[in-house]
């Protein structure tokens, strides 16, 4: 929880309204969203909270977690944390909405740098708050699309639409199947008798500074050589054989990952887990976005009899792992696996979902 000042302490008056949005964990469909493919995320219980009121002069934003304040106008450079908040305001203005000077206060339970979409939760919560305050009439899909634009244009991350759609539309009790090309979506139950376990590896990652944009560029290069707009158009991995080896491996992950998502829609727990295990191997070997601590944590999870399957989640290069486990066992499994992981020399890990009881 944050230790910073309240909205009242920062601005001297109460907010006009409060908005919230969750982080997300992706069960299957990693690095497919910017390739026009299929994804299967679910929301996590942790929320980002934004309080807002009309202000004077410039926009002001305060982060209770960072204990930092920023002020910015309608032009000029956006810095640090303000890139996300200010980016949301500027994309709204670019769409023709008039946004008066605002005072915003932000606090988040979503872990940063863990691959659980803390940035998307922030963008969605900010846009929801402004939408409700000003009565802009934006629906959940439009809010997600504007959040994606803010991240691409102002935070410098060439992200797909999955994170913002999951934060805007998903809940923590179901999976959200999303076709990122058409935005067709379905809400589905988890496989019977299961629950989700999310464990942060303790290895922080920075999306913009990682190989994320590089992987996206490699996929675009593969598309150009194959004569397709999106790798989602390729359904047979054999069609990739003519590509240079590096591009072939990158594209093979995307093609096989799309197939895994579609197969998972009707899978039982055991089959769903097998698909998750295969996804991690593909991310590790073909897409090369894992790191040794993540591989070790995933392997320790996969060894447990209560675990159907486990994989890294998010862009990789650190961050969190997700596992599908037998219902009622997630917290105990997570704590036990972390004990061995820490004893092997990897400090800083923690169970994120389910949330441990506060005491």
Name a few traits of the molecule.
359 residues, alpha+beta, Ribosomal Protein S5, domain 2, Alpha-Beta Plaits, 2 domains, seven-stranded mixed β-sheet, four-stranded antiparallel β-sheet, 10 helices, 38% helix, globular
Structure description:
The chain has 359 residues and is an alpha+beta fold. It has two domains: 181 residues, Ribosomal Protein S5, domain 2 (2-Layer Sandwich); 163 residues, 2-Layer Sandwich (Alpha-Beta Plaits). It is 38% helix and 23% strand. It is built from ten helices and eleven strands. Strands 1, 2, 3, 4, 5, 6 and 7 form a seven-stranded mixed sheet that branches. Strands 9-10-8-11 form a four-stranded antiparallel sheet. The longest helix has 20 residues. The chain is globular, with a radius of gyration of 20 Å. The two termini are 14 Å apart. The model has no long low-confidence stretch (mean pLDDT 94). This is Galactokinase. Keywords: ATP-binding, Carbohydrate metabolism, Cytoplasm, Galactose metabolism, Kinase, Magnesium, Metal-binding, Nucleotide-binding, Transferase.
Topology at a glance:
Elements: H1 7-11, E1 17-28, E2 38-54, E3 59-63, E4 68-72, H2 82-94, E5 102-108, H3 118-134, H4 140-155, H5 162-169, E6 174-179, E7 185-189, E8 194-200, H6 212-226, H7 245-264, H8 269-285, H9 292-303, E9 307-313, E10 320-326, H10 330-343, E11 350-353
Parallel strand pairs: 3-5
Antiparallel strand pairs: 1-2, 2-5, 2-6, 3-4, 6-7, 8-10, 8-11, 9-10
Helix pairs in contact: 2-3, 2-4, 3-4, 3-5, 4-5, 6-7, 7-8, 9-10
Domain GHMP kinase N-terminal: 84-169
Protein name: Galactokinase
Domain Galactokinase N-terminal: 6-54
